[in-house]
């Protein structure tokens, strides 16, 4: 049995135990901290080893034909995202206040299990299935225990359900198409390794690759709130219960990016090479950064600011994937991790703010810095990381993406990718505007309406301090995380970067 | 011991129980229920031993019109399982069913399902249309009684009348179709029909007419559009165990016959192959849409399950149309059988939960499900998994069934049907999810006291839930059972 299987199954068993009446808080904290421990050890072990092939593989055949197996395996990227899941899940279940019903813990554990499964499985079927497993509790929790009045909450829950349901169906269609096209011979296979082998020996015609790539982009894109399919995300996070907001925006949303990185890029390199797909992607990610940047600036409540900013930051990661160079891809993976940690920290803090003060309206808040210094410092970590301040994890990721994307420009032209980078850089400024403004209006000045809050008790600080520390360590020593991405991006990068080189050339050729 | 004996045993047991009712009226309901349930359980055990030791042990006089292939054995087991579950559910529901019958008597509710089961088991092995017809009538006539059994309820009477009239009409249509087929092909056996259709000289129009009538008649039995409109009313009016039996047993019986008929009609170079496929695709797409779209507006879970049963029939018809698809490892008949096997636990579970709510004084509307997870965590979780499976969410049985259908459709490039199936699945997300939300809602229905479950009820619920999960996570064994008929068929074709 692979340790990865334990990591995937343990939260499910823990959720079952809580349902059967085990003490919710203790069970879920023990389960998630065990997963965190296991994944940290695996990361350390992987970091120290050589070779970039999949590790800790194990597979149980579920079906012979079509070949579906519960197959797990991890390389640096999966381990990093698994580590992110464990971190955020641990923080999320720790910060659930004891008076909340057990369903909070059950839902958090199931979402964590789904995310673990989605990141650590190497079979397309289970990759998809585990993501769905995580979606159900997310949607249920928004509908049943979300913030806001009944009417609003139900509307948000339905909108999210419709978007994510439709996105999943499109994704399923794309994956089924991929599987049918790439399965050699009479037998279908969902095994990613086998599909990759097939893609390497007999690639599909470029036009077909582009069509499949576009379908997958729409499917995965909806799940990651890619502009213009993003409008479910901000209200959903704003009204989701805190642990769900942390887990979905921090972890689960990365599944779409991970899917593109793991399935779409390596299997359809020429698909993303097609100018129309590539330029559509650039257009959409600019929508994320610029449109959502403006939207975020105009938000009046902290939860809306965080929710919209989370949508906006996806644009950078898409930029990294679209550029496809080694540096940009590494940056994208790093930023997935960093964004997950920082947004989870911010949502945890916002949740505490809400439960203490009853409001998150920026105009009503103020002067909290004097009353709750620890809280303020923790928030500063999250907010500054989110802006992309050097020394915190997001900076490394963003800088790598920008540099990696910008070096791409050819000698003869300044292609669409470069223009995208230039425009995307403005997003950093917008991040600074809304985050600093939110920080100022909450923590500085005077508390006009007499809203006071105190620092969390020592025990309640644990998850937040952990997340802040991770941000700091990853920001100062990004090589600790980047070391996990040994040469294993090369296979993806090679295919994808030749693809993008070609795309840039083709685009340049078209303009001439 | 032959499998055939088991069917005879069931029929005789059913008749014997009826006679006991007539001549020894003082025998208690409990005794009759015990005899009926015990008899079926015994039959199930005997069936498994017989099926594993001597699968092909028909008495010689049956051989011309019956065949015990893998498919027949699978369906026979299927029918025994569902009959056992229905009888148990009848026993559970007896306290409230008794209120609606004369003097609270329920003997027929325990004896007729046995006869229905025998009929369905014969149907599974039937090799010619006359045998099919006789078995089908045995089943349908028994159902006329069962549907209207709660005769003090006006809804049940309405359901009974509707089912009787439409059932009789569809029987007429079916016979008419059989007559045309016989007239043109000169044969009543599936093999003979297939052989005649493969010959180039056969007249196309009359045989197509016959096939169309045949499909229409069978379409009524499986609730395919446009013959589906009886379903919601009949399902709502019939007692819950009977609804369960109709929705799983009767539908599966219809699909055995449809599978065999379609296999014959689509054989090799059949002259009417393309038309029949087109017909199946159109009917299937229409059934999916007419099942899932109206379901969005339903407030009654019983009607919702009725509509759900229609849309599932649509997916099954679409699977039948993909006759040439072999890439998913099963032939279309295997996929249909697989789908029905996944359909059994999830649908039965839905009706079991309905019955339990009903027994505790609740209604059948979605609002009666509010707070179910709080009133009974076991039922809440079981119903959630059942609904997720009906919606076709991954890791449940329902997804596996749908996956096979969708893969076949893509493989055959039936895009129009695929779009309809996807719309149906998306609508399904909505209405099943709405019920799931109600189950986990913090506010409770008018009746909010905790539900108490008996040990057997709890055990059955857990077993059905596990069946859904096992079929969703580890479908390999079932697929292996079902991929055998393909080999058998391939051998006999050569």
Low-confidence stretches of chain B: 486-494
Our count of helices of chain A gives 22
Average pLDDT taken over every residue of chain A: 85
Distance between the termini of chain A: 58 Å
Q: What structural class do you assign from the helix and strand content of chain B?
A: mainly alpha
Instruction: Please tell me what the overall shape of chain A is.
Output: globular
Biggest sheet character of chain B: none
Number of strands of chain A: 2
Largest sheet of chain A: 2 strands, antiparallel
Strand content of chain A: under 5%
Q: Classify the helix fraction of chain A into a percent range.
A: over 70%
Summarize the amount of helix of chain B as a percent range. Answer: over 70%
Q: Structural class of the secondary elements of chain A?
A: mainly alpha
Structural Rg of chain B:
22 Å
Mean pLDDT of chain B: 87
Order of helices and strands of chain B: HHHHHHHHHHHHHHHHHHH
Shape of chain B, please? Answer: globular
Assembly annotation: heterodimer
Instruction: Give unreliable regions of chain A as ranges.
Output: none
What would your notes on this structure say?
The complex is a heterodimer of chains A (512) and B (494). Chain A is mainly alpha-helical and 512 residues long. Chain A has helices at 3-20, 24-48, 76-95, 102-120, 124-145, 150-182, 192-201, 206-223, 233-239, 242-252, 254-267, 269-273, 275-297, 302-323, 326-357, 368-371, 373-387, 393-406, 416-443, 458-476, 479-482, 489-511; strands at residues 55-63, 68-74. In chain A, strand 1 and strand 2 (68-74) form a beta hairpin. By secondary structure, chain B is mainly α. The longest helix of chain B is centred in the middle third of the chain and has 32 residues, at 154-185. The model of chain B is unreliable at 486-494 (pLDDT under 50). Chain A binds chain B through residues 19, 61-66, 70, 103, 125, 128-130, 132-133, 136, 139-140, 143-145, 157, 161-162, 165-166, 169, 172-173, 176-177, 180, 183, 186-188, and chain B through 326-329, 377, 381, 388, 393-395, 399, 406-407, 410-411, 422, 425-426, 429-430, 433, 436-437, 440-442, 473-476, 479-480, 483.
């Amino acid at each position: 049995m692979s340790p990865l299987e334990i990591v995937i199954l343990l939260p499910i068993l823990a959720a079952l135990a809580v349902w059967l009446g085990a003490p919710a808080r203790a069970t879920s904290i023990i389960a998630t901290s065990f997963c965190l421990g296991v994944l940290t050890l695996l990361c350390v072990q992987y970091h120290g080893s050589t070779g970039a092939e999949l590790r800790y593989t194990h597979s149980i055949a579920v079906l012979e034909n079509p070949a579906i197996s519960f197959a797990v395996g991890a390389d640096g990227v999966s381990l990093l995202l698994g580590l992110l899941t464990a971190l955020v899940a641990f923080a999320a279940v720790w910060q659930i206040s004891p008076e909340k019903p057990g369903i909070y813990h059950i839902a958090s554990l199931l979402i964590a299990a789904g995310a673990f499964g989605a990141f650590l499985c190497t079979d397309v079927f289970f990759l998809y299935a585990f993501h769905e497993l995580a979606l159900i509790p997310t949607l249920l929790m928004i509908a049943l225990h979300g913030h806001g009045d009944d009417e609003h909450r139900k509307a948000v829950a339905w909108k999210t359900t419709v978007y994510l349901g439709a996105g999943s169906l499109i994704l399923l269609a794309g994956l089924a198409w991929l599987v049918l096209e790439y399965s050699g011979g009479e037998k279908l296979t969902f095994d990613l390794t086998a599909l990759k082998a097939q893609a390497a020996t007999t690639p599909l015609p470029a036009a077909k690759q582009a069509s499949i790539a576009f379908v997958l982009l729409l499917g995965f894109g909806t799940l990651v709130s890619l502009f213009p399919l993003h409008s479910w995300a901000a209200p959903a996070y704003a009204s989701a219960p805190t642990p769900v907001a942390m887990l979905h925006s921090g972890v689960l949303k990365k599944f779409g990016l991970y899917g593109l990185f793991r399935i779409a890029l390596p299997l359809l390199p020429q698909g993303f090479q097609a100018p129309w797909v590539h330029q559509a992607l650039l257009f959409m990610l600019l929508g994320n950064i610029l449109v959502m940047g403006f939207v975020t600036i105009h938000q009046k409540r902290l939860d809306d600011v965080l929710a919209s900013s989370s949508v906006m930051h996806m644009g950078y990661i898409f930029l990294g994937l679209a550029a496809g160079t080694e540096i940009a891809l590494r940056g994208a993976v790093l930023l997935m991790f960093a964004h997950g940690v920082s947004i989870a920290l911010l949502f945890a803090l916002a949740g505490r703010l809400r439960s203490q003060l009853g409001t998150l309206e920026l105009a009503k808040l103020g002067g909290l810095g004097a009353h709750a210094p620890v809280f303020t410092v923790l928030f500063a970590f999250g907010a500054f990381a989110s802006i992309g301040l050097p020394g915190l994890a997001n900076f490394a990721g963003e800088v790598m993406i920008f540099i990696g994307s910008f070096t791409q420009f050819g000698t003869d032209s300044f292609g669409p990718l470069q223009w995208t980078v230039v425009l995307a850089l403005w997003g950093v400024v917008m991040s600074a505007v809304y985050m600093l403004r939110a920080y100022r209006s909450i923590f500085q000045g005077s508390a006009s309406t007499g809203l006071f809050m105190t620092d969390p008790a020592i025990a309640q600080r644990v998850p937040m301090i952990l997340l802040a520390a991770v941000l700091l360590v990853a920001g100062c020593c990004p090589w600790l995380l980047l070391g996990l991405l040994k040469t294993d991006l090369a296979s993806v990068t090679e295919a994808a970067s030749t693809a993008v080189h070609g795309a840039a050339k083709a685009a340049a050729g078209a303009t001439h | 011991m032959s499998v055939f004996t088991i069917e005879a045993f069931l029929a005789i047991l059913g008749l014997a129980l009826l006679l006991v009712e007539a001549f020894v009226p003082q025998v208690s309901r409990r005794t009759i229920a015990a005899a009926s349930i015990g008899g079926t359980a015994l039959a199930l055990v005997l069936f498994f031993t017989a099926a594993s030791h001597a699968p092909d042990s028909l008495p010689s006089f049956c051989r011309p019109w019956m065949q015990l292939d893998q498919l027949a054995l699978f369906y026979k087991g299927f029918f025994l399982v569902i009959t056992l579950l229905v009888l148990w559910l009848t026993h559970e529901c007896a306290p409230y069913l008794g209120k609606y019958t004369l003097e609270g008597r329920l003997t027929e509710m325990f004896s007729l399902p046995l006869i229905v089961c025998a009929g369905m088991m014969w149907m599974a092995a039937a090799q010619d249309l006359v045998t099919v017809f006789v078995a089908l009538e045995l089943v349908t006539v028994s159902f006329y009684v069962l549907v209207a059994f709660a005769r003090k309820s006006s809804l049940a009477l309405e359901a009974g009348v509707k089912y009787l009239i439409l059932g009789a009409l569809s029987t007429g249509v079916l016979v008419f179709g059989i007559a045309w087929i016989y007239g043109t092909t000169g044969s009543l056996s599936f093999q003979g029909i297939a052989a005649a259709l493969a010959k180039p000289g056969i007249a196309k129009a009359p045989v197509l007419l016959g096939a169309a009538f045949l499909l229409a008649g069978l379409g009524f039995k499986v609730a395919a559009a446009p013959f589906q409109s009886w379903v919601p009313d009949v399902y709502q009016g019939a007692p819950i165990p009977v609804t369960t039996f109709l929705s799983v047993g009767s539908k599966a019986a219809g699909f055995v016959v449809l599978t065999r008929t379609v296999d014959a009609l689509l054989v090799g170079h059949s002259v009417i192959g393309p038309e029949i496929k087109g017909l199946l695709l159109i009917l299937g797409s229409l059934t999916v849409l007419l099942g899932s779209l109206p379901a969005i507006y339903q407030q009654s879970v019983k009607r919702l399950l009725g509509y759900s049963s229609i849309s599932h029939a649509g997916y099954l018809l679409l699977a039948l149309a993909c006759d040439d698809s072999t890439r998913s490892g099963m032939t279309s008949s295997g996929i249909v059988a697989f789908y029905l096997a996944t359909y059994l636990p999830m649908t039965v579970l839905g009706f079991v939960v309905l019955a339990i709510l009903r027994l505790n004084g609740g209604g059948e509307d979605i609002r009666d499900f509010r707070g179910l997870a709080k009133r009974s965590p076991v039922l809440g979780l079981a119903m959630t998994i059942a609904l997720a499976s009906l919606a076709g969410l991954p890791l449940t049985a329902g997804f596996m069934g749908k996956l096979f259908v969708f893969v076949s459709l893509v493989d055959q490039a039936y895009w129009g049907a695929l779009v309809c199936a996807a719309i149906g699945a998306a609508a399904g997300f909505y209405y099943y999810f709405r019920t799931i939300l109600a189950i986990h809602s913090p506010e409770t229905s008018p009746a909010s006291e905790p539900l108490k479950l008996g040990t057997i009820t709890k055990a059955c619920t857990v077993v059905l839930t596990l069946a859904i999960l096992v079929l969703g996570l580890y479908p390999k064994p079932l697929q292996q059972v079902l991929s055998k008929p393909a080999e058998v068929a391939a051998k006999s074709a050569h």
